Amino acid sequence: MSVFGWIIIHQHLVYSFNWNISWADYKAGFGLIDANFWFGLEKVHLLSSSQPYRLRVELQEQSTNLWYSAEYWSFRIGDELNDYRLEVSGYSGDAGDALQYEGDYNGNGRNGSYYHNGMKFSTQDQDNDLTGYNCALGRAGGWWYNSCFWACLTCDAVHNGWWTLPNDLVVNSRMMIKPQ
Question: Whole-model pTM above 0.85?
Answer without folding.
Answer: yes
